[in-house]
Request: fold
Amino acid sequence: MPLIHIKDVVKTYDMGAELVHALAGVSLDIEANEYVAIMGPSGSGKSTLMNVIGCLDTPTSGLYDFEGENVGELDDNQLAEIRNKKIGFVFQTFNLLPRSTALHNVELPLIYAGFGTQQRKERAENVLSDVGLGDRMTHKPNELSGGQRQRVAIARALVNDPSIILADEPTGNLDSKTGIEIMQLFVELHRKGNTIILVTHEEEIAAHAHRVIRLFDGKIASDETVENPLVYEDR
Amino acid sequence: MFRFHDYKEGMRIALNAIGANKLRSVLTTLGIVIGIVVVTLMATVIEGLGTALDKSISSLGTDVYYLSKWDWFGGEWWKARNRKDITVRQAEQLRDRLKLAEAVVPVTNTWQRTMKYRNRSVKGNVNGTVPEYEITSGVVPGIGRFFNEYEANAGRPVCVIGFDVAKNLFEREDPIGKSIKIGSYNYRVIGVFEKEGDFLGTTMFSTDTQAFIPLENFLKVFGSNRSIDIHVKMHEGVDKEEAKEEMIGIFRSIRAVPPGEEHDFGVNTQDFLKEVFEGVVGTIGVVGFLITSLSLLVGGVGIMNIMFVSVKERTKEIGTRKALGAKSRTILLQFLIEAATICVIGGIIGLAVSFPLSLIINEVLPSSMPLWVVVLSLSISIAVGLISGIVPAYTAARMNPVDALRYE
Reply:
């Protein structure tokens, strides 16, 4: 059974005068420990697809099974729970709470999951150390560089030990050198067994993935395996 | 439904948000501060009035009937004006016939007479009465004594003065045995009443500003062509209603009121006085409550407004929190806590402001801010916060995470 099973998913937005078909019948399976890049020009539906995969939105029609569970049948609270426990989001704009420390930002999903203070602190500290921010835990976002902020966000995504990591243009707000560092972190996470889904419009970024799905006009235009994913071994 | 973490996180977010917008928070809180100040002061005043009322009422003496030409409250004064005067003779007849009474005391007075001692003078009411006045009034001289049967019957020029009169005329001197001038006659001071305190904020009706002289003497000096009042105190343990009926029956026969006609005198009691004043205090309470509600409403609208702004400008944060697994009710709680926190802070500041003000009120109207006012105003703060926060918080909770995340 695939981790993600999407069959004929349609997502329609009612924009008043007209109906916009953001997704016009998309089918795809993603297995555990895949590293997938979803690409496409703006308006191709890649963000909508990501929202559906991330359980932020439910399809208008079609089937979406996440770990065998039909997401379309879940209510808001159950969706929130799936997002909390099974999905780790990484945003282009980091989306950290500006007035909270790195540690508290990383603890946030654990708070919503209901973990106790001690456990939260321990886990958040571990994950922050894993992403190389062991010495920056008490810093607030504005005291961190862009790359460090994105690392905090990645730590936050990892802290609940999710089934998939969903990254939406994770390097979009970073300079190329920092971007490469972040991509390397993803490669590492993939190696450790994480399933990563990356949404991007940059070929260079997508080149790190092992599989590239291209969307166009709400449909899958191509779905290819990458022969030689880009890694920076000698760094 | 909610875990402790939710509250703790909500509190943390609230304090962060308030700290992040200090000026805005202060201005918003101001509405609540003013509301709470009004609430507490109003409650303090009402409490003070109630206390003053109870004290004043009991100072009139308990279970005493006041027969008078006039009805204290209600009644028709234009009818009362045509009533025949109540005479000392009638009072004596009542005293002889009403066996249930412990004391039947004729009292008459003249207002705002000048009392002089050397170069000092004060104005106050002068009363003419008999020794039993001590029984009906419930006040006793603190120093010296009340005049006795002999002095009363002989109409001796002696007087018992109120505490304030003594203080103003004699300052540190011992008044007993000294001679003061009331009007143009000399009176020897034989007693000074204990301090009684004011009556509903005025010392006008308190013995403190008055002087008491024998009735015989009073009628001679100030004229006997006047209607007197009769204070009647029943014996302990008699049936009040029965005694009252008997008193009225006897007095009707003394006044020769034909059966079937209404009394030609007023039967006044402190209970009635109490009812009337309680009515007044109640009205003040209702009006106060309305004004207070209004000011709290304004404060609440301010909170609601600022909460809408707060929700709007944190749309993206709400989206992020939802993406990270915050449930709608968690977001709801978060903003409710924020609104309530602003209000509670306002409430605490309000209490801090109104406490010294209540001490100032205390100077005029003896009262202290009761504990229930503190509890009440904090509860009201929380309630206002929750009520005005519920709609903005609900808006936040219902946000679609996709739209919220996309919001710039």
